[in-house]
DNA sequence: AATGAATGAGTCTTCATTCAT
DNA sequence: GATGAATGAAGACTCATTCAT
């Protein structure tokens, strides 16, 4: 009752990692169901009961694997992350021309965003509601910006980009521009034709950096903001 | 007893517009308290009870003026809107040089955002949660974009801006870039020095539009995204 | 949601002290109902729902005044305490003969215990279950023992009681003997005639202390263990 | 399909007596684990799951041997009983002097109580919670009291003890005094030096019975209250 | 016999909303 | 209009018990 010794498991709650095949199936079913329900009802209106129901398991089974809505959401994010993880553009494509690179990475980003629009909307929402996830997005955004900043810096050093721009701030700005436009179009439904969206964003990147058209044989260009960038 | 006589107000709830001076005071106290509580606890965790308590009125009194949290939030938005409403830059300042105009409007926007950062964070949050408010922001964003698009178009026509850019999409993109950076810095706490933020954003606008430096005698420049733009 | 600022009330929960007459009535009804339900079902099986039901209020109303079963139990204890509180024997009766005093206080204690047997059983039970209440009983027992020890000491000093006895330990021992016998008889139902119980306990007190029969004009004698003693 | 054939065991549940050596081991492990968990968490907070975990068996295996927490507790009690069972004092020691006997049996009781304090606390607790176990303790206490009463009676008959005392009630009273003091000191932590505790209790027994110091050649003295006395 | 997941009944608890004074 | 208590629907969560493998 009152002042009992804490449980022997060190205060951790029950959630287990499934040991049997059946357990794996159930856990997966729950994560899949969670995605369904979250996308359908939004994070806030999603009831744990509904997730269990959608997974065709008893309500209590949810707690075999997760402690809370937040926790299963985390699991969902991790899973999606894995799916979306892939090597960087340059390594995959061998593209080195900055213009081509900007185009490729913006296209890739926008395509992925469009494809997972409901999920992205969900992430947007949760980042506004849950502190932990908000932090995650900040860090992710910073990582992207740092990487892009490096590329911008190298373009500046080789005389291909406007040397007056602060690389890190510029990287942030151009990244949020792209990701926010993706949100505007694919989540909020702003009607902008896809091709026009891509070309305009490309153009602003190029103009913004003042890319010298006659880029001779140069190296880098920024990688696109990742799917989870803010 | 059987057939209820329909209420005179057609089934609408009670919320009244205060008639007495006391009523006005109470209603105001509630709106002020709502802002306090919303900023402190976030929209979701703010309980109507807390708002009433903060306003030093009985919990039941809330319903004399509002039907729901959403409704008092609306009232809060309207009030803030009034406070922030002011004529457009050009009309106020007479500035016509595009560069100056970009600088002035970005500064004005960022200053206002910083000053009301907690409120802006709140708006961001509610737009993710409440459908009605989400629509409001879309419309507001569109209005801004249309206005800025007009200015971009006129710059293009006078040969001062890159004619390849789609004016409306560009207007959207540059606007969200600024507003999102404001969010990043003033709400999420990204550490970017104020002056560096302003100059970088200015630069990207200018570069992005390819403003001809020798802008001879031309007119327009985009108005900054308003305080409530997304 | 996640890391929200704590409520403005300093972390205290809602429970209020009733401000209206109606509120006082409701709160009282709940405490009375709690006693009923606790005595009927035992502490563990008593559901908050049942208490509310017995008090003829909605289930949620319980939480207007209490946070938990433990809390309303505390309120019940306090109330009972007040009812049972009365001046010490000697002050009330003027008895000074040790034998008479022992008899009077044992009788009083046993009578009160018998009258409130179900409540006493309840206290016994909760002291085994709830740490806070267990502490309360320890302290109460100590207070009694200290008082009785003082009396024993003075009897020893005036040559009326066995000087070999440790006053404090003896006080504890004789007190727990009486209270535990009360429990045995009135709660567990051990069939011992009331009068035989009293006289036997009296006798053991007298013998135990080796009270000199010819106690001339002496002063003190121990006060009986109080109703709540362990 | 319609009429269920009654199970061969008459509706009784499964719990088995282990047939294999492995079964014996598992069952033992569970009882040992139960003691651990009960002592650590208290009867109420002990979950069957925890007992299984502590025994390193799957949660479902519990039900191979027991139907409920109550049932394994019973098994635990029985096991402890066996361990503690030993012949009566007199038979073991040959002591016949009443004073020596009181001393010996009190010492023995208190030593055993101290050694198993957590277990005794547990028994105390369960007796307050579980009806079946409460009955057990009543019976046990009665058995002790009857035996001690017989001894008191014989002391009275041989002129060694106060003839005014009711033997049975006195036996109860002195027994509960000892056992309750043991609880006070070893479970509740009342700080009384061991030796002082023993000698004081001895003294009260002797004084209480008014043992004639010159005890000539007499036989009996009460056996101490057994470990499970109330 | 052992395993370890699945089940779901039973309570607690919150708080927007109503209402008698 | 204001008050402050009462209401009760809604959901979260626990854990003893069952069961397929």
Structural summary, described in words:
Chain A has 2 domains: 62 residues, Arc Repressor Mutant, subunit A (Orthogonal Bundle), CATH 1.10.10; 124 residues, Tetracycline Repressor, domain 2, CATH 1.10.357. By secondary structure, chain A is an all-alpha fold. Chains in contact: A-B, A-C, A-D, B-C, C-D.
Q: What share of residues are in beta strands of chain A?
A: under 5%
| CATH H-level superfamily of the largest domain in chain A | Tetracycline Repressor, domain 2
> Approximately how much helix is present in the residues of chain A?
55-70%
Order of helices and strands of chain A: HHHHHHHHHH
Most extensive interface = A-B, 39 and 39 residues
Category by helix and strand content of chain A: mainly alpha
Number of strands of chain A: 0
The largest sheet of chain A is: none
The N- and C-terminal alpha carbons of chain A lie at a distance of 46 Å
Number of domains of chain A: 2
Mean pLDDT of chain A, nearest integer?
88
Net shape of chain A: elongated
Reported by name, the CATH topology of the largest domain in chain A is Tetracycline Repressor, domain 2
Give me some keywords for this one.
10 helices, mainly alpha, homotetramer, elongated, disordered N terminus, Tetracycline Repressor, domain 2, 230 residues, DNA-binding, Arc Repressor Mutant, subunit A
Offer a quick outline of the entry:
4 copies of one chain form a homotetramer. Chain A is mostly helical and 230 residues long. In chain A, 66% of the residues lie in helices and 0% in strands.
């Amino acid at each position: 009752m009152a002042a009992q010794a804490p449980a022997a498991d060190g205060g951790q709650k029950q959630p287990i990692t499934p040991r049997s095949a059946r357990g794996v199936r159930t856990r997966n079913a729950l994560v899949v169901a969670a995605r369904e329900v979250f996308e359908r009802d939004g994070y806030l209106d999603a009831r744990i009961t509904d997730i269990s129901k959608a997974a065709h398991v008893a309500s209590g089974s949810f707690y075999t694997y997760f402690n809370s809505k937040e926790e299963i959401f985390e699991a969902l994010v991790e899973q999606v992350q894995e799916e979306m993880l892939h090597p960087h553009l340059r390594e995959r494509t061998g593209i080195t021309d900055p213009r081509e690179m900007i185009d490729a990475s913006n296209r890739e980003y926008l395509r992925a965003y469009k494809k997972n629009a409901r999920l992205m909307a969900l992430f947007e929402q949760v980042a506004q509601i849950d502190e932990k996830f908000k932090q995650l997005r900040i860090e992710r955004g910073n990582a992207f910006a740092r990487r892009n900043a490096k590329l911008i810096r190298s373009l500046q050093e080789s005389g291909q980009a406007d040397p007056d721009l602060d690389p890190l701030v510029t990287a942030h700005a151009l990244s949020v521009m792209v990701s926010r436009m993706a949100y505007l179009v694919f989540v909020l439904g702003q009607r902008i034709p896809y091709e026009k969206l891509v070309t305009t964003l490309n153009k602003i990147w190029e103009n913004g950096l003042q890319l010298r058209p006659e880029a001779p044989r140069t190296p880098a260009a920024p990688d696109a903001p990742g799917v989870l960038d803010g």
